[in-house]
Design brief:
By secondary structure, this protein is mostly beta strands. The chain starts with a helix and ends with a strand.
Length: 541
């Protein structure tokens, strides 16, 4: 009976820990690619907004909202939203910005969509949708910018303290995107019924990408500053509840996007996360690029001015390209996500006069309330096609869970296959692990796609057990990674054995001698350098 109780306790522990997963969202149409833009959780259901693109002469696109089971990521339902008025659009028929799936306590999904047709004089027609949990549109209305605008795009929306809508993005008076006199950051406040309360444009700025409503009713957002050629600075603008600018913080930079993110914590702190150019490199024959670190600033709001209380750079985040978001977790820790470049950065070959694009990967970073880094990990998929040329595995949005974990969405770019995309979801634990216990081997990179590649027998084990690899996956590891290892971790998180896996052999097996181990639950982690590949749990009798 004592032994059965022990086995039952081990089984319950394994069951409780096995909550992480990753899923590709199957393309419901025969489209060429997709990008996941937003994710929210209502009760125990995951909602994801994605843009699926048709690769044909029209390049039309569809907004798709999909529902997924939180336990395993399985697709429950989906629905597309498309305006037939733009059936023959000669460029993308719909654009949905990042952070585009905002929900409130009434449990409606709200998002702004931007249909356009560049064959027309006024090329787009933004709309606002309110969607229930059955994916049915319960309300919608058009959104008008300023008279004479050539183009209006909304990147997201928020609900302010009074229950009104704040829609943010950019507007242009002509087709010259880089004209600093013609492009402005745009903010519109509306009632829930679609009546405009006010609209504001902010000169010498371009495209609000991230906005946060503050507890006192004020608003803070990020944007870029346009030059005659491109966005050459990042800015943060704070307004009162009427949209009137109170102060502006310029972050500097060059060849940058306007991406950065802001959060007001439960302690009333305003935290800004940004990528910061710390070095310029120009090597003959190799090219030039900017090295970047992740930067966090704690900002004190003084009403009509500001004070930067802390300005922190994180050297271990070298080559962070963009920060897409920051979220306060249930334990008051802060989770940051975005894109990191796996090599030096965007490089320009001065001899061959070519841009060389490195592989870009999604990253997650957890900080405590004092802004100390707890862990930093990158994520990518090892599929052979994705390792060729320029590939991405991007994290676009995150939804926290009550247990401290979270669900992420994003997409992978397959540049050697016609700029195609695959949309994916991942549920991770509070340490950013795809399988429990990975933090005990402290990986800097999570390789997605090798999970469940190892089986162990016998399990439970008395003396010696055998690890059996999936032959196809093991062959990929042999060709794509350097020497790998198996690290055995006990229930206290301590390393008890490390064994090299230099050659799997024809049977793709490895024997582990556990005769001297104490009874209990162990984890065998498969790693290669700083890359975590897979793990399996072993019960020692």
């Amino acid at each position: 009976m004592k032994y059965l109780t022990f086995l039952f306790a081990c089984f319950i522990t394994i069951l409780a820990q096995s909550q992480s997963w990753q899923r590709l969202i199957e393309n419901p149409f025969n489209f060429g690619g997709a990008q996941a833009r937003g994710i929210r959780i209502i009760d125990d259901t995951i909602f994801v907004s994605s843009v699926f693109v048709v690769v044909d002469s029209t390049s039309n696109s569809r907004l798709v909202i999909s529902k997924h089971d939180i336990a395993n990521g399985d697709l429950l339902d989906y629905k597309q939203y498309f305006s037939p008025d733009f059936e023959n659009a000669t460029s993308s028929g719909l654009y949905a910005g990042y952070d585009q799936l905002f929900t409130t306590n009434d449990e409606y999904i709200r998002l702004a969509v931007n249909y356009w047709d560049d064959s027309q004089d006024s090329i787009n027609s933004p709309s606002y949708l309110m969607i229930n949990r059955n994916l049915n549109v319960v309300d919608s209305f058009g959104i008008s910018g300023f008279e004479g605008d050539y183009f209006t795009t909304f990147n997201g929306n928020r609900i302010d303290n009074d229950g009104n809508l704040l829609l943010y993005g950019n507007r242009r008076v002509d087709d010259q995107m880089n004209d600093p006199e013609a492009a402005y950051a745009l903010l519109i406040k509306m009632t829930p019924q679609g009546e405009q309360i006010w609209k504001k444009k902010y000169p010498d700025s371009y495209s609000i990408v991230f906005l946060e409503t503050l507890s006192d009713g004020d608003v803070i957002f990020n944007c870029g500053r346009m030059s005659a050629t491109w966005v050459d600075e990042k800015q943060v603008i704070k307004t009162n509840g009427l949209g009137e600018e109170q102060w502006r913080l310029t972050l500097g930079g060059m060849l940058v996007s306007p991406h950065s993110a802001i959060v007001e914590t439960s302690e009333g702190k305003i935290i800004l996360v940004n990528s910061w150019n710390y070095d310029f490199v120009d090597e003959p024959g190799t090219g030039w690029w900017y090295r970047k670190w992740l930067q966090l600033q704690k900002i004190e709001d003084l009403g009509d001015s500001y004070n930067i209380e802390e300005d922190l750079k994180y050297a271990h985040t070298t080559n962070v390209l963009d920060a897409y978001g920051i979220e306060e977790m249930v334990d008051s820790n802060l989770l940051v996500w975005g894109i990191i470049q796996s090599t030096a950065g965007d490089t320009y070959d001065t001899i061959n006069q070519l841009w060389t694009k490195p592989t870009e990967r999604g990253f997650l970073m957890m900080l405590n309330s004092e802004l100390d880094s707890l862990w930093f990990r990158t994520y990518y998929h090892p599929d052979d096609d994705w390792l060729q040329m320029y590939s991405e595995y991007l994290i676009s949005d995150v939804a926290p869970l009550e247990n401290g974990g979270f669900v992420t969405c994003g997409w992978g770019d397959i540049r050697d296959m016609g700029d195609l995309h695959q949309v994916w979801l991942m549920r991770l634990d509070e340490y950013g692990c795809l399988e429990p216990g990975c933090q005990n081997v402290n990986p800097t990179e999570i390789v997605v796609g090798y999970e469940n590649s190892i089986q162990v027998y016998p399990n439970p084990v008395v003396d010696v057990c055998t690890l059996q690899w999936n032959a196809e996956l093991a062959s990929k590891v042999q060709s794509n990674f350097s020497e790998s290892q198996i690290i055995i971790i006990d229930a206290m998180g301590r390393e008890v054995q490390r064994q090299p896996v230099n050659n799997f052999g024809s049977q793709f097996q490895l024997q582990i001698d556990m005769s001297s181990f104490s009874p209990g639950l162990y984890q065998a982690h498969w790693v290669s350098g700083g890359s975590w590949l897979d793990s399996v749990q072993i019960i020692k009798q």
